Amino acid sequence: MVEEMGKGGGFMAKNLFEVAETLTSMCDREECTKFLSFPAAIMATGTRGVIIDMVRAGMVDVIVTTCGTLDHDISRTLGDYYEGSFEMDDAKLRRAGYHRLGNVLVPLDNYGPLIEKRIQALLTRVYDKGIRSMTTEELSTEIAKDLGSHKSLLYWAQMKRVPVFVPGITDGAVGSQIWLFAESHRDFRIDLIGDERRLSDITSEAKETGALVLGGGISKHHTIWWNLFRGGLDWACYITTASEFDGSLSGAQVREAVSWGKVKEKAKQASLYAEVTAVLPFIVSYVITKRNRRLD
């Protein structure tokens, strides 16, 4: 179906095919270090399972994301979210004990209190072992071990040795718990510079790099920024709903990144204006199916 969309043309249908094809060719390159960047919101949806499938299928070598990804991975692994709608009465939801994320309902007890209990216990165990500093990569690994569940993205990232970096670690529930823990353990630190050293090593040692960038924000910029120092990405796929007229990074197209040296002039690239949860399942299914047929 994706190939037919490409042949038939039509506004974003052709772009969807181009992203799928570009991602396929990127994944076919064993020497290409493949980055996946995304904001946390999609982790509250069923698309979380698609991202897990990507990791399991070897389509990802490095993840750069936001703190909410850790939040939702914990909450959805250990609890349930529910279907709602964009039009629900938020005051009533608040009184009933629900947060609303778009049309997803997050039970309060499955979020803040649950995350507090797990993270405080985890940090206490780590601290009691004599550890006083952790990178977000190391923190993500510890959370994966703590969850120990096939339902968890962090679990599969650990199993497949895919490092997870969270440059904005304090902007979320897990980050708040780190702050709270550090208030009573003043010698405890999150080592963001350690994360940067790892990203520097990864990009500088890579023969080629490619990125699937979902949405925008800090995860997008951190991915393309670190690739600047190696001369730019060799492959770049963007999926976004943001427009570029306001100068935002989230809406900036691949061609703008070329001007900064974050993407190479001759990089294979594709952009798609679409909402990720509606299109990523088609794209990933296309890539995995096409690659499996070649192996057969």
Detailed description of the structure:
The protein has 296 residues and is α/β, with parallel strands linked by helices. It has a single domain (17-295), classed as Deoxyhypusine synthase (Deoxyhypusine Synthase, 3-Layer(aba) Sandwich), CATH 3.40.910. The protein is 52% helix and 18% strand. It is built from 13 helices and eleven strands. The strands form three sheets. Strands 7-2-1-9-10-11 form a six-stranded parallel sheet, with helices on both faces. Helix 7 (136-147) crosses helix 8.
Tally of distinct domains: 1
β-strand percent reads 15-25%
**Unreliable stretches covering 5 or more consecutive residues:** none
Mean pLDDT: 95
The separation of the N and C termini measures: 20 Å
Helix-strand pattern: HHEHEHEHEEHEHHEHEHEHEHEH
CATH topology category name: Deoxyhypusine Synthase
CATH-assigned homologous superfamily: Deoxyhypusine synthase
Q: How are the strands of the largest sheet arranged?
A: 7-2-1-9-10-11
Helical content stands at 40-55%
- Which structural class should the secondary elements be placed in? alpha/beta
Can you tell me the CATH class? Alpha Beta
| Tally of DSSP β-strands | 11
Question: Per the principal axes of the C-alpha atoms, what is the gross shape?
Answer: globular
